[in-house]
């Protein structure tokens, strides 16, 4: 599905990612752990094609195709979707109007919105004055309508209460087709700080990022327990 | 006491405080009566002038009145000249909401032959459809001198859409337009003005309103204009409300200087002013002024500007004045460019860069004009929409 080779990325002239290598297979969902500032969000922004995140080396392949130079909207057409941690508000643009750009069937839009308790937000300006949980639900709603093959989640569990977390977890499972292991192609990469989303979404593999590089991969639960017990300092030591 | 003419004569050389000083003598008063060609009809549609769904029509080309008709009882639509002949009392409304000696343009208007419209809703009458008026400059190098009076009598409801355009984009001209609005107790008047002048047209509207009921004034100017300057003013009486909504786009070569001013002089008077300005290379001045002079008045002014491209200028001046403590006046103003972050966000939802930009601009201009009949609201949105695609 996704293969990242020796990817280096800089933001505003500052190198953040250094030769990152990462592979996600068809139907696989992975988590990416790492302390604040380690470059997790940068990786997601680079995969999504944010022009402020400049690729200085390496390449990103999606379904075998080099997408490193592709514009963000082209990547969406290839099958990539992102749930942002802090999506911007778009004043004057109704959420429903944005969703109509994403999906042509208004009935489908309304039914997914209702599942996510977002019906009352369809006539509101996109993300304007939304609370933390509302922002995440709005993002999930957009992704569910986009139906990407690869979903990237930037901290879907940050700033969200238990009730919302459960709803978001349910939506993520639907998006990643976790309940259909035999036929699924849908894959995911989830950034999580505290791992709370893992109580709701079963993931296959975990990575740890430190200082702009992937240092470790393995069983996600074991990695999480290790981090909780020993912190990231232990990872840094282990790396040496 | 000085007569109106005497006051006008004294103000003949009085420059306006804002906008370029126009040499009025460079333009001539039209002498011929133009005809309406298919091209004109098309341009009329662009500014909201249509054949059906109207309670009345006033149409003036250059200085010729081509149509003055009403289709609803209790709604009067006629040329101002005919109205002044018909109603002696109308003299009491002449230069009461606008000062004749405000500047050289008002002075000129008074001292020269003038046309214009008179639109009135009789007490308690509600217009079923909007009344439309059209001021069209077909000839070149001409001066169009207009004086309008609009009266919404007690308890009436009246919607007016007025469109202004030129015959040829390259036409040179000067439009002086005096408009005096009188909104009586319990009445509601909405007045929507669509400007579609040309690249070489100077426009000097001078509007005033005396409001005892509710007055909604909407202004849309998204086409090139050499120089448009206006600062409509309203005098808001006890518990009356005035709302100004303004949408302007200054293209390269355009100078647009538009403000709204409200004197809240009656107890509990309210005003809200919302303006959106875009510059794609021209100069836009967005002004607003609220003066709180009575107990319990409330006013809010919101102005947002967006600069698209490398050239262009937006100058925003919100002003508030209070002469007593029991007032609630506020303003907010912001100018910027389109946030790249928002474009990327929409692109990450599958929109192309162009689509994303257009959606954001559309959103920026989507001012909720409250209180309009839904059909008229949809019409105005359509006019704005079609102008966005030509940005």
Low-confidence stretches of chain A: none
**Largest pleated sheet of chain B:** 10 strands, mixed
Provide the spatial order of strands within the biggest beta sheet of chain A: 6-9-10-3-11-12
Briefly note the CATH topology name of chain A. Rossmann fold
In what order do the strands lie side by side in the largest sheet of chain B? Answer: 2-1-5-7-9-11-14-16-18-20
- Helical content of chain B stands at 10-25%
The fraction of residues in strands of chain B falls at 35-45%
Could you tell me which chain pair has the largest interface and how many residues each side has?
A: A-B, 26 and 23 residues
- Helicity of chain A, as a percent range: 25-40%
Order of helices and strands of chain B: HHEEEHHEEEEEEEEEEEEEEEEEHHH
Q: In total, how many beta strands of chain A?
A: 12
Structural class estimated from helices and strands of chain A: alpha/beta
SSE layout:
The complex is a heterodimer of chains A (240) and B (391).
Chain A: E1 2-11, E2 14-24, E3 29-33, H1 40-48, E4 53-62, E5 65-66, H2 72-78, E6 80-83, E7 90-94, H3 95-102, H4 106-115, E8 125-126, H5 132-146, E9 150-154, H6 162-176, E10 187-191, E11 205-210, E12 213-218, H7 220-239
Parallel strand pairs in A: 3-10, 3-11, 6-9, 9-10
Antiparallel strand pairs in A: 1-2, 1-4, 4-5, 7-8, 11-12
Helix pairs in contact in A: 4-5, 5-6
Chain B: H1 4-10, H2 38-46, E1 56-61, E2 64-70, E3 75-79, H3 80-86, H4 104-111, E4 117-121, E5 131-137, E6 142-152, E7 157-166, E8 172-183, E9 188-196, E10 200-211, E11 214-221, E12 227-230, E13 233-236, E14 241-250, E15 255-264, E16 270-279, E17 283-292, E18 297-307, E19 313-322, E20 327-336, H5 340-347, H6 353-365, H7 374-388
Parallel strand pairs in B: 1-5, 4-6, 5-7, 6-8, 7-9, 8-10, 9-11, 10-12, 10-13, 11-14, 12-15, 13-15, 14-16, 15-17, 16-18, 17-19, 18-20
Antiparallel strand pairs in B: 1-2, 3-4
Helix pairs in contact in B: 1-4, 5-6
